[in-house]
Design goal:
Spore Coat Polysaccharide Biosynthesis Protein SpsA, Chain A, UDP N-Acetylglucosamine Acyltransferase, domain 1, 341 residues, 33% strand, seven-stranded mixed β-sheet, single chain, alpha/beta
Length: 341
Amino acid sequence: MITKAMVMAAGVGSRLEPLTQNVPKPLVPVLNKPVMDILLQKLKSYGIEKVIANTHYLAQQIEDRYSKNSPVDIDFSFIRETDLSGTAGGVKKCESFFEGEEDFLVVSADGLHDADLEKVMRSHKESGCIATMAISAVEHNEVSKYGVVVSSPEHRVIEFQEKPPVNEAKSNFINTGIYVFNKRIFDFIPKGEKYDFAKNVFPALLKAGEKINTYRIYSYWSDIGSIEQYIESNIDALHRKVMIPQPNIIKKYDAVYVCRKNTVLGESVKISNNAVIGSNCKIGKNVSLDNVILWDNTIVADNVTLKNVVAAENTVIKSSITGNEKWEIIAPDKIIDLSLV
């Protein structure tokens, strides 16, 4: 039985800026819950007892959250990377953590999914392969955003394509960043070098004649790596396309929304379509909220209309904002008052 896992949590999250100015990507909230909270709860539910994470950007926040009074009851340790060493290089630094383990799980901190990890781990055991990766199908016109996996009818990897142009993609199956490895994987990762699974390790495995198993995920999967995907993931979670524990979703007329504790909604607030409202927010009188994601400690003045807006923590919004198809993104600690312009 696999009881140990590593969470790859060292990414900077530059494509999520400005939301990641004050918060590392693994702690960006989906339905007001940090995505890494959701992940750790899932790992625990599948029998994982001990987790190690590599940290880098705003590392202290991750380390403190899960080492001190963690919201998830799981044995957590970390290794801080001063300089990034790649996906595989980060795992190599955790080699001693897996001493004595035959197989172990590795997952990306920014993945939001309903994957059955028990089936992924069982598939790995039955395959006898050095590595198993969970794959998921996407629309063909989306393949250029991902690492594409070409596999045989026996579910073994034949080829990898890293973010290929749509017309050159040989498959619409993508790497989800969910792996099960045998301990022999460390033989293929040099110590002290920047090394990636997709660019370095997996091609080396194929060249050496090693077989890489694939397991297809049919359930929900999303990589919260961009603003667009972040917004889509929140809306998907609101509509229960992916299950997040205890979101307290409210459905009323044409609105679906969540509202955290200690948040005050003023008189005659109208909520339309989708809304995620964090803790300790103050929403004024006669405010209209239509497709919004408001992080903790957001203040919205009376008579303001917000449409297609994401506001990071500690923002004060005194003027109406109406985004079009491209949502308006407000950085943390900002005061929005167009009357001063």
